[in-house]
Amino acid sequence: MAKSGQVQDLMTPDEVAALTRTTVDTLRWYRYVGKGPRSFKVGRRVRYDRTAVLAWIERERERTASGDDVA
Question: For 22-50, what is each residue's pLDDT tens digit?
Fold first, then answer.
């Protein structure tokens, strides 16, 4: 099983955009304003750690949740 930080856990901007159903341009904007999932570069290529992306999605879910269980 792969541990966090291994090559299998690296995601491209295209993969993150597909997962979050957004565009690569939106991810680029998020990086610029410091809003999106944590990213880094390998050489000149932007990459995301899968665990960090999933954690960011969960934080966003909690931060923006609305519905019956919200007081």
Answer: 999 999 999 999 999 999 999 999 999 99
For 7-64, the fitting CATH number among 1.10.1660, 1.10.10, 3.30.420, 1.10.3470 is 1.10.1660
| Cβ-based neighbour number of residue 4 at 10 Å | 9
Domain ranges of the chain: 7-64
What are the DSSP calls for 50-70, one per residue? HHHHHHHHHHHHHHH--STT-
> pTM for the full model?
0.80
Ramachandran sector of residue 50 (left: φ over 0; alpha: ψ -120 to 50; beta: rest): alpha
